[in-house]
Amino acid sequence: MAMILQGSIVGVLLLLLMLLLILLLILLACKPWRFFSSLSSPSRALKVGDLERPLVLDDANAHGQSNESTRSNDLEGACGQNEGLLHSPRMHDLVYKQRLPSASLQLNEGDSVVLNSDPIEDLSVGQTIRFLSLTERLAEVQTHVRQEDQNPNLKNDLLQDLAPKAIADQRSCLSLEVISGPSCGLRCSVQPTSASRLPLTLGRVSSDLLLKDSEVSGKHAMINWNADKNKWELVDMGSLNGTFLNSQLISHPDSGSRHRGDPVELSSGDIITLGTTSNVHVHVTSKSECQTPFGIGIASDPMAFRRGGKKLAMEDVCYYQWPLPGIPQFGVFGICDGHGGVAAAKSASKMLPEKVASILSDSLIRERVLSQCDASDVLRVAFYQTEANMNNYYEGCAATVLLVWADSNENLFAQCANVGDSACFMNVDGKQIKMTEDHRVSSYSERLRLNETGVPLRDGETRLYGLNLARMLGDKFLKQQEPRFSSEPYISEAIHINQESGAFALLASDGFWDVISLKKAAQLVTQAKERYFEEGGNISEKVANFLLSEAKTLRTKDNTSILFLEFDRKFRISCKVDS
């Protein structure tokens, strides 16, 4: 009897244990607690006024984990049109924002909305989501502006951080001009905002820049705008004879494969060579450069050692900016002639206008230049800062900069600074005024300076460490070895330009001056102006190309670049930019 009772108790216990186990499994399967967790979590509740605010991470390191396409879509709806123009650096940390369709919600002020309870995968433990209001973003922009006022050197960096890409796109107009070959004189311009015209094609058949040259392929190359880098890029489209940028091949290494080459960034002053004879000059300008108070002409050719021979590597860079960004009455025109490569010339041609603009952004300095009609200090400091910021140890360049400005009465003035052997002269009231100094070791004035350093030159010595120049930008290694090398610029007197007297300025690299004297150049300019006056159009461009052809006829054996400015009022033209 006792054994029967004990067996019944064990059976009941086993039955209860099985029931408890079944109940536990049912609870695990149904998860009834999930109906209470979203109601008890205050961090998921948002008020109606907060729906249109972006969610921003405090941890700046998280922005690399966010998806780029999501980020751009969020930015479109996160703020109004005016707010979108204030591109705060903190917006790079945007990770997540859920937008709810207003038509499907009937909400009153003070109501709450519960977002989906799924966790945000981009968040890490310890990171906090916070709201970035318009007021906070405006305060950040004002802080950046105050910092810029205190330190003018921050100007360019802040412009890049605060200005949206749309503004940068509108300020970068690409202009192409064929400067040699069968289609010489052909021009084409395009802006990044002209999406229907991009990419811009160069070729012999159905191209935007149509070149009637048998050595050019039907679709030879194309140029497109890279919005991520804010740069124009050139791509060879698998041409037979190759595409060269500043005499450097950019085509696919296997020319027979007809594969496209890699994109290469373009800069103002670059020379694109298609085949062997068609050279295209690149000029990148601001859209604000709609009118200049004088004519501008640019011509350039790498030249060759012998007629019909292989072209030399192009190491010259021509550039100009009129007006300087944010400084409407000032402009810069220059030529950088590189040696050992083109890198130093490109660096200097980019930095010099930036440094001049940064210095003149100070209203007190600008007013002093206008009142005293003298920009010597501006040019001197710009050269010092450029030299200090260049990292070219084994490449250097000669540099000539002509600063032109207009006062409140529209009187024009010009002042020049240079190192090296690129030269500039002006013709004012029929008189030729040399605006530069020759800094070759063989020149009389430079030999005097070198002898005054305490280590005089030997008789017949015309080079230092293999260079015929004693002053240049860059070449940091040589300057460490030889203290007599210098980057101190020569600065001319400021010249008042009478716009009724046929005044002009001519800047040219040493390839031109090696075969043409100053007096001869003035005669050629007068001859060209008389020849082309009746034809109309951009006479300054025709004069520049005429001078270049004369240098080629005289068989110069060095890169030759010419920048011609015609100040006579009757030659004033507008720079028409295709939209």
From TrEMBL:
Residues 295-567 form the PPM-type phosphatase domain. Its cofactor is Mg(2+); Mn(2+). Residues 200-250 form the FHA domain. SUPFAM superfamilies: PP2C-like, SMAD/FHA domain. It comes from Populus trichocarpa. SMART domains: FHA, PP2Cc. PROSITE patterns: FHA_DOMAIN (PS50006), PPM_1 (PS01032), PPM_2 (PS51746). The keyword Magnesium applies. InterPro entries: FHA_dom, PP2C, PP2C_BS, PPM-type-like_dom_sf, PPM-type_phosphatase-like_dom, SMAD_FHA_dom_sf. Residues 62-82 are annotated as: Disordered. This is protein-serine/threonine phosphatase. It comes from the Eukaryota. One of its GO terms (molecular function) is protein serine/threonine phosphatase activity.
